[in-house]
Amino acid sequence: MSPKYDVFLSFRGIDTRANFVSFLYKELERRGIQTFKDDKELQDGQRISPELQRAIEESRFAVVVVSVHYAASSWCLDELVKIMDFVKNGSITVMPIFYGVDPFHVRRQIGDVAEQFKKHEAREKDPEKVLSWRQALKDLANISGQCSSKWSNDSKLVDATVDTISEKLMIFTRLSNGGKIVGIERHMKKLNRLMDLNFKKPVRVIGIWASGGRNGRSTLAKHVYQTWCKDFETHCYLGNVKRIFKGRHLAHLHDEFLEKIEGAYLTSRGSLKRQKVLLVADDVYKVEQLDALAEDFTDFGPGSVVVITTQDKQLLISYGIKDVYEVEDLRCEKLCDLRTFAFKKRRDIFAAFESALYEAKDFVTECFGCPSGTSGVYEKLLK
């Protein structure tokens, strides 16, 4: 089954919905990373809906934000059990973020976490369910993740988290779903020459014309965006413009762009006129769509680049786009099942080693404290 979402966000709403999670979600969406964020806060005792379970199953990554009251919520813990079940069968990768909590406390279930589980044990009639919650939380805390105490502010933590996800998605673009673009390195080498990142003149528009199915074209578009976005002050990926536009007024395309690229991000960094911007618009099929986007990209700063992908070569010609990369036959090839199997096995072995290392670290810490220099050794081993 092909994943519907890149990221599933698991979090406790009362702790992080209005601050950290909202910033993280906005940045993920702005970078073109399809993210599921449940906007409903279930009450304790309510079951996770089949739709929510399906969203977990249909995601590549689960980002679990463990905050102060996360373990106090039976709903969050039920959700975590589902996530860790999918982690065990290899269908999803989990990335923990310990926000305002000590991962050691979460792993050993001491301090506030211990008090929260005492309340669960007093309320919950099924002791096996509480044990499953404890095990899921312990398994999660045994995975190396981000810790908010190591960052000076939330903005840096958000950037680091999204950068990591973006880099991993570049690998998935090539390796997951059983295929990759044939000759991707050759395509990128030619596009790099056309791109010319040192070019400082006003905004340039580059077209990518590719025949064949949309999947290969979209895969190339996302790969181009993820490869180049770090070279720009501001960047935005508009995936599947045809879907955004279909059945709606042209203004909706303009609004979609503004929603992804404006707001707090630009408020803190100035107007687009002074920004070096990368905009990748995938699957454009009408000149009117280019006109709608041009309302924005004509104001981009020097060195900005707009990349348009389309199946209609005449569209690029009629709009006067001269820098065009033509891909006559954009195909995906199947990867060997053995390679996929070996990749999963290596990941499972590393996870087991990581868990054992954390257990050893916790034992040493409890018995002797943290001897000088040992913390750095553990961190190096886990990298």
From TrEMBL:
Listed InterPro entries: Disease_R_plants (IPR044974), NB-ARC (IPR002182), P-loop_NTPase (IPR027417), TIR_dom (IPR000157), Toll_tir_struct_dom_sf (IPR035897)
Protein origin, superkingdom: Eukaryota
Gene3D superfamilies associated with the record: P-loop containing nucleotide triphosphate hydrolases (3.40.50.300), Toll/interleukin-1 receptor homology (TIR) domain (3.40.50.10140)
Entries under SMART domains matching the protein: TIR
Residues of the TIR domain: 3-169
Descriptive protein name: TMV resistance protein N-like
Gene that produces this protein: LOC104751145
